[in-house]
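Memo to structure team: turn this sequence into structure tokens by end of day. - J.P.
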Amino acid sequence: MNLQDNIKWLLIAVALIYIVKLWFDYKKVAVNAKGYPKTVGMMYLLIAFMTFTGVLSLSDKLLNWLFSQLGVNLIDAEKLADNKLILFSAFVVLAIATVFILKKSTKTAKENLNINTVEKGVGSVTTKEGPVNIEQTFNSGQSPEVSEHLIKEAERKNQEIDALKAKLKIAISPQEKLELSAKINELEAGKASLKEKIQTLEYRLKAYSDNVAVVKEANKRYQEKGIDVALDYLESIDFDKALQKHQQSALDNAKALLIKADLYTIKNKHSQADHAYQQSIQFKRTFDNTTAYASYLSKQNNFPEAIKQYSQFKQQVKQQSLALSEPQQAQLNNNLANASARNNNNKKAETAYDEALKLYRSLAEKNPSAYGINLANTLVMGVDLLNQPKAYLKEAKAVLVKFKGFYRAEKLLSRIERLEKD
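Reply from structure team:
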């Protein structure tokens, strides 16, 4: 083998190693992305063809054999060299195309997995820089990186869904098909809910770790060993004793217990989650734990208790002259309006709704990329639950055009389509 062939071998090896790395990076984040199975098949074929052309461009024997099968004689050295050059050029073009596709697909998959997967009402966290609204952060694309825990859980749920889809293909009974379809839909909804819960937990862990030692340790155990180990650690702590011994402040306890509640919700341990939320609030009621608990209650259809939590916090804000940011005020009123409307308390719902809409209009005007979806959501909610003018749907659609492909935006557009038909 001459020097030129050795250089080609080296270039092909480096290219393949780099592409394999990109491929694993893509698989890591795209396992839960829309259209993933189709993309996998396409990418396997592209990488296989690219590798084959690379090997062919360097192997005289393999190239001669292949062309002999086609009835072409390449014994002529000049013909052989020309074809090898053509094949190597094809390899280079395919390699560049593969790198481009993988990088773009990875970026898109990350956006699909990270952005706008958190629904309204997940609450806020307070960092050293002040209160940060989680919903705003996810809407603006500043969400945390996809974690190993989310990937593993997504893979597990995808395996369950694939198994059910395989059964659905061979199912004969209409009743069996109906039951399997219902289970698949339930798992798909659970997958979206799980992403929301894990990303909310991880955002809070990261924010609270800066100033709460217990949360920092829980975060370390979560990152190294997973959810169960972090939860075991928090369950081992006597928070009352820690407060009495001045090892932790009431606010520290409230934050740590909110993390504990988040972990329980991921594990679907609802009675323990409810208790942890209440404990957190007993130590110190904050915007974070109030909105998190009230949102949790709303998802359990316990709207009266959710309304009670929002109302008590609003009263506390008034009595203690607490300062809430505009995004916090908007979220608080929006969620109170939602819960009140679903509990048929329209007067309370309309008062809160008007305030939320006014605030979100102002926020979206100043920062449309961060608050546009929130405004659209509030407009749609008004039509759906409070008989607001249907012109609001047109306004919401105009806002959502800028967020095409975002998870929450697509859900809202589907909701708008349903309302327009009613």
